[in-house]
Design brief:
The chain has 10 helices and 11 strands. By secondary structure, it is of the alpha+beta class.
Length: 294
């Protein structure tokens, strides 16, 4: 048997990073139903007037007012292979840190303050979880891999400028609970319904074909089990639509609820920063907190 070359030996000795993680990035989040039950059992804290954002909503960070001009924003980040930050179901070693920041108290945009009639703008295309699943099964082509890297390494920089717009009423980002899960958080926080337009949703290249072939994430099924009873899907949607709508996004885009008269400014901020696929995907409506996709 001929000796292995150095390149071949390296490929044999070094496994794929994704093969060492049972769940990558937002795909390893604790299921939303389990997380909700855990938070319900936590000891209630007394009200603090300077605590602007606490655990009562599903916001991504706590916000504490220091004075009339400054509030501190704090969150914890635990990095997994593939990298992201959130609650973690993991058997692998992890690395964590605290990420603090400063914000003007009047520019804090929560996920619980959307208004009826607001339009919903999504900043990034969807489908990272499907591409990650394809990568792990070695069925992702170079174009798909490049698209996945491009979107997951693109920082949501427009958030700061968006927070300064009076017409922007609420913001969140679409991550591990999928588009439906984080949209439902907006609905529950505001006590409103949401209507999403499936035909308007932006997808990463190749995602729909991969999903229709059965390349999906386990997290999408867990997400649906957690909140599917609060979602109504049109019968006209493709068979794989549910899995895509619940697909966990690592480094997903911002989801912005804004007044209709502010939507041009919101889109202009996204587009000027290179978020060319940012678009209107739905609107907030009066009604019970649920999501309709048509």
């Amino acid at each position: 048997m001929p000796a292995m070359t150095e390149d071949v030996a390296l490929k044999v000795a070094v496994p794929r990073l994704t093969s060492l993680s049972h769940g990558g990035g937002c795909g390893c989040k604790i299921a939303p139903g389990v997380l909700s039950e855990l938070l319900k059992r936590s000891v209630p804290f007394p009200a603090f007037p300077d605590l602007l954002v606490g655990t009562e909503t599903a916001d991504d960070a706590a916000v504490y007012r220091l004075n009339d001009e400054q509030a501190i924003v704090a969150t914890t980040d635990f990095f997994m292979p593939i990298v992201d930050d959130h609650s973690i179901d993991s058997v692998e070693a992890i690395y964590g840190l605290v990420a603090p920041g400063i914000v003007h108290p009047q520019r804090v945009k929560r996920n619980a303050s959307a208004r009826a009639g607001d339009l919903l703008v999504l900043g990034k295309p969807l489908g990272v979880g499907v591409l990650s699943a394809a990568l792990k099964k070695e069925k992702l082509d170079e174009a798909g891999y490049a698209a996945m890297l491009t979107t997951t390494t693109k920082l949501n920089r427009p958030g700061t400028a968006l927070a300064a717009l009076e017409g922007v009423h609420a913001m969140t980002d679409v991550t591990g609970f999928g588009l439906l899960g984080h949209t439902l958080e907006l609905a529950r926080g505001a006590g409103l319904g949401v209507h999403l337009h499936y035909a308007s949703l932006p997808w990463l290249p190749g995602v729909e074909a991969l999903a229709s072939s059965g390349l999906l994430t386990g997290a999408s099924g867990r997400n649906w089990e957690a909140y599917g009873e609060n979602v109504e899907l049109s019968a006209s949607l493709p068979e794989h639509a549910r899995a895509l709508l619940t697909d966990p996004q690592t480094s997903g885009g911002l989801l912005v609820a804004c007044a209709p008269e502010a939507v041009d400014d919101v889109l202009a901020l996204f587009h000027s920063d290179g978020f060319d696929e940012a678009c209107v995907i739905g609107e907030m409506r009066d009604g019970l907190p649920h999501v309709i996709v048509g």
